[in-house]
Model the fold of this input.
Amino acid sequence: MGDILSTSVSGLLAFQQALDVTSNNISNSATPGYSVEGIKLAEQPGSGTGGGYFGNGVNVQSVTRSYDEMLAAQVRSSQSSYSSFNTLSTQAAQIDNMLSSSSTGLTVTLQSFVNSLQSLSTAPASTAQRQVVLSQAQALVTQLKSYQSQLTTQSQNLESQVGNTVTQVNTIAQNIASLNGQIAAASGGGQTPNQLMDQRDSLVDQLSQYVNVNAITQSDGQMDIYVGSGQPLVVSGTAQTLVASPDPNDASESDIGIAAGNGNVSDITKEINGGTLGGLLTTRSQVLDPTENALGQIAIGIASVMNQQQASGMDLTGAQGQAMFAVGPPQVLPSTTNTGTGTVSATITDATQVTTDNYKLTYSGTTWDLQDTSTGQQVTMSGTGTGTDPFVGAGVSIVVNGAPDAGDNYVIKPTAGAVDGMSVTLSSPAQIAAASLGASAAASGNTGTATISAPSITDPTNWTNGSYTISFTDPTDYQVTDGGGNVVTSGTYTAGSPISFNGEQVSISGTPASGDTFTVGPNNKANTGDNTNVLAMAADVTASVLNGGTTSLNGAANNLVSAMGVLTQQAQANATAQQSVNQSATNARSNLSGVNLDDEAAKMLQYQQAYQACAQMIQSSQTLFNSLISAISNG
Amino acid sequence: MRISTATFQNNAVGQMDALEAALQQTQLQLSTGLKIQSAADDPAGMAQVNQMNVQISATTQFVTNSNTAQTNLQLEEQALTNASNIMQNANTLAVEANNSALSAANKKDIATQLQQDLQSLVSIANSTDGNGNYLFGGFANTSAPFTQAGGTVSYNGTNQVTQVQISTNQSISTGDNGNVAFMNIPNGNGTFTTSAASTNTGTASIGGGSVTTPSAWVPDTYTLSFTDPSDYQVTDSGGNVVGSGTYTNGDTISFNGAQVALSGTPAAGDQFTIAPSTTTSAFSALSNLISTLNSSATINSGQLTTLVNTAVQQIQNSITNFSNVSASVGARLNAITAAQSTATATQTTLKTNVGTIQSTDYTAATTQLSSEELALQAAQESYASLEKLSLFNYIQG
Done:
């Protein structure tokens, strides 16, 4: 009977503990990161008698948690991917929305500028129309600058988010390291500290939102965490620190490094992937920097085209046209690691060759090498790098001075600063050079039917403001003489084909007679109806003037809109896909580790009934004892 | 399969969230009327829409340009018609003056009337458009292109005229310069001019003549001289005789593929010159006639008739020139009309295409909205009913 009692008591205790576990499961059914726990019961060793072995009740062996390392890893990696694409798509959508407006987009503003030039061509002397051109030019600058300022703000926010994320990662890594220590200590008794393990798994889940990590559990229960391409972040009880520090070439952008125990920081910016951090770095390299450069390229294109054409024209006061736009010069960013005293300066020499890429100029000790940092390719430069014979590559001319040391390098961003430094440099409507710099006329005594076009100045720097006479010695041969009677050029006449000399060009069509002459000289400001130069401006602005003459300004603006649209669309699609992958991984894990209340209800009933049965057994043992006592007392 | 209670809840809520997001997107399409909210919705479509919007804008600008050109050209056409009318009037006066019965005083009266015509013609040549720019000055359109000093009118404008673009690859001149319209008008019959020597004493006058055999015509200055009233010879500039014969009043004399008609009786030693055509202005046609008529008393009758004939021919040449320039203006106006109707058609097509790509298809969007509503409703109802299922509900204390 004593056995019945003690056996039943062991059952009572065991089922009470089982109900404890069930109650804990029910209580935590909505706790994130909670792994459902179960109780492991085992039969107690039996007592041997002549009649065989009798059981001695039940024993609670351990409280276990339902957990699968592989399912958890799947949740984390999909979480990292999702976070990364979600960050990218959120950030890219801001740029996409900024560029996309079909009523106020850059293509619309550019076209309005072209339209204002066209309107001016119908009334070249009109101050009102000239004012419209200046206003549209200003609107163009304002729009580009508002894009630039949004980019700058977003970029600053992004950098501070990078810093915050790194801080978060470090805090979590520190906590994981400390939990590792506690878990190692608590596991000494052979039991698993489920609560600490759940807590640590939760932290690793959180960490994987910030950056893609690889977690490996050691035999002693401690978990090592690796980031990037296998750089250890947490090893047992020790956490390394991620460091966000300014890029040596560009203090406005942070690099991500990992500090080893000895304090050395190794740069792992390129190795970081996944999570918010990965998404932010991708946004910087694929959205913000390219957009800034593309806008800069467009700004440089407009300024180059308009300024060159202005120089070919005469303004309303009779003077040669001045530059219409100013743009920021190429940025030259020396590395903070440079040890020499070299200085590098860069200027745009050929806007049609300027790309949206950035470049790195490195001194090898004997030679200078220019590398396109976007494609990784070497760029061939002509020249020797001196002021009189600068290096020229990718539309940029580079002058190097001073004494650089081997390994010194300079990042050159031809387009990044263009919009920041952009402005309209004309102050008065009269300064728009609508007329050509030159004028031409047919001599009054000409007997042929040939007519001469207004001259166009093809090369303002070679144009000399001189007066020239084109005379036909016979109907098929012409010669051009200057004011001093010197022959400048001569040739065979073909109707309509251009005759070029000293930076200007005219075309004669029709049939000249022998002895016919034409004069070409400086224009007269009285020729206020001359719109040839403003027509040339309108034509140039719509021509293919970028990327080696393959892309128009409008085309470049439109390409940027669709490139950012495609990128955003892909990021959104990837985020959606990764969200669903993450959802099913989370479901799979949750189906194993989550609490099912019906399960718990059934277990509760089972344990409750068993508990009641044990209590009945104690009752029954009392009855048996009473029967015995009364038999004795009755006897 | 075992499903955790939390998963069931999360999934159900997640589904409803997704359906609500889709509903919101569809609702946005319906309320904005735009299928593409940003480039990310349809990058290729957005690029096309941008490109087409640029084309629509450019086309609108070309239509505006062509309206300006149209106004200018219509003004020019009107000016040319007025100039032509003046010359018609001068023509009538000149024919009237070519009457030997009129006295020198009568001729002076006609000259006075012609002087009025000359002033009107100069004023027409200096007419301006609505903005005060001179129609016939070429590039120099802010000061009067024609200036008059005595009987001489000179042109101070340029040969080039303002051109405007009326379509992507079509530019037209918005006017014609003064040389083309008024100054460089061929004289004589276009090939040669005829004149009588001022020393002539006979009554013979020479007509404008014509080229009958162009292949035989040799451009040169020829002298037709009468050795006596009935014998003539034609010599070229080198003194070579290229034709000779006898003349009776009203004969036509032919040489080197050309023929000239004379009337009246020449005196011995009278000379006529046949020289290659050059150009002269509409103004000098009138001013020459005016000075001829003013001094008619002192001019030999044969020469007077010749001078008036020449003036009449020149007045008619001017009328022809105005009509030619008008025809060219008309052709440009036609080109503008054609370009404008092409522009309208292009714009209609582009706007339709933009609409197709960019605008919400209301039928499709409404259908989609209903089906999404239905799905959300179903999700909510099924969630509410499944949510009630729990074993705990059946365990009675």
